[in-house]
Amino acid sequence: MIQNNPELYYLLAIIIMIIIVFFIIQYTKYLANKKQNEVIAKYQKERKKSNTLTSFKEKKSYFVEFTGIVLPRIDGENEIDSIKQITFSFKHKSKANKFLKIHITHDNENMYYEPPDSKTITPGINSTNCEPFSLEKIPDDFDSYKFLELIPSPIKTKYHFILLLDEKNRNKHFIHYNKTYCIGRSSIDYQPDISLEDPDEEFIDITIIKHDNLIPANIGLDVLGFSRKHLSIQMHGNELSAQLFEDKKPFYILDQEFKLREQIDNENQPVGKLQIGEYILVGNYLLRFGKN
């Protein structure tokens, strides 16, 4: 019928062409809208990311960082509640069962280390495997363990030296304006805002021997001068204000070169202020005040 009617044939062809052109136009509009939507979505995403980063920089630029372990003296006038020995067992960077043990005792001003291959069941300086440990006498493979370097003691009468942790083992606690943070030791019934505990299973174990018996390390922190509610910190301008709670043992402010700048105690000066890059030494912990 179409073959016998050319006009109908051309009309049908025109209708088909119109339909094809219509779909091409619609599809072109669809692609244009899709591209536009993608551009808008990308812009919104970038804007949101920019706002997030700006917010992060504004609200989370200041921090207190767990920077190092400080090895205390427990001999002479520093004897603490019948503690006989403290052992710091530092874990190897790649070998899970390899430790370097540093022993501190109440009856000797020196430190001793126990080599990783020691077969001693009960660690202690009475072991024949123990050797003197000092800044002048350091084991050859010392840098194989999870800390960065040794820093001389800022208070030689109270501490042996500082062990700085490597970057990946430093925990940052971001701080905000208009908020006061409590720094202390966590317990079952209390959690401070910034909790500093023995970093067990990460890079170090701390063992304390009291009356020939081992005591839990979290109790040991209190013995070493670090209690549940020890000090509070708050931002004031670009400075960090640190205040000692009543009846707590002193803490110390160190400058950027790890030199003692100020002792904070309840008798003379319960409040201290830190500049960016300075340190708080409390108990056997070193904290750095920083900014991103």
At a glance:
By secondary structure, the protein is of the alpha+beta class. The protein is built from 2 helices and 19 strands. 26% of the residues are buried.
Q: Could you spell the SSE succession in H and E letters?
A: HEEEEEEEEEEEEHEEEEEEE
- Please bin the fraction of helical residues: 10-25%
Structural class: alpha+beta
Counting DSSP H or I runs of 4 or more residues, the number of helices is 2
Straight-line distance between termini: 83 Å
Query: And the CATH topology of the largest domain?
Result: Tumour Suppressor Smad4
Output mean pLDDT: 78
Into which percentage range does the β-strand content fall?
Answer: 25-35%
CATH architecture of the largest domain: Sandwich
Largest sheet: 8 strands, antiparallel
Report on the structure:
Strands 1, 6, 7, 8, 15, 16, 18 and 19 form an eight-stranded antiparallel sheet that branches. A six-stranded antiparallel sheet has the order 5-4-3-2-11-12. Helix content is 21%, strand content 34%. With 292 residues, it is of the alpha+beta class. It has helices at 6-59, 217-223; strands at 62-72, 83-91, 99-105, 111-114, 131-133, 149-152, 159-164, 172-175, 181-184, 194-195, 204-210, 213-215, 231-236, 239-244, 251-254, 260-264, 271-274, 279-282, 285-291. Mean pLDDT is 78; it is low at 47-58. It has two domains: 1-41; 62-291, Sandwich (Tumour Suppressor Smad4).
Characteristic terms for this protein:
Tumour Suppressor Smad4; 2 domains; 19 strands; six-stranded antiparallel sheet; single chain; 292 residues
Topology record:
Elements: H1 6-59, E1 62-72, E2 83-91, E3 99-105, E4 111-114, E5 131-133, E6 149-152, E7 159-164, E8 172-175, E9 181-184, E10 194-195, E11 204-210, E12 213-215, H2 217-223, E13 231-236, E14 239-244, E15 251-254, E16 260-264, E17 271-274, E18 279-282, E19 285-291
Parallel strand pairs: 9-10
Antiparallel strand pairs: 1-7, 1-8, 1-19, 2-3, 2-11, 3-4, 4-5, 6-7, 9-13, 11-12, 13-14, 14-17, 15-16, 15-18, 18-19
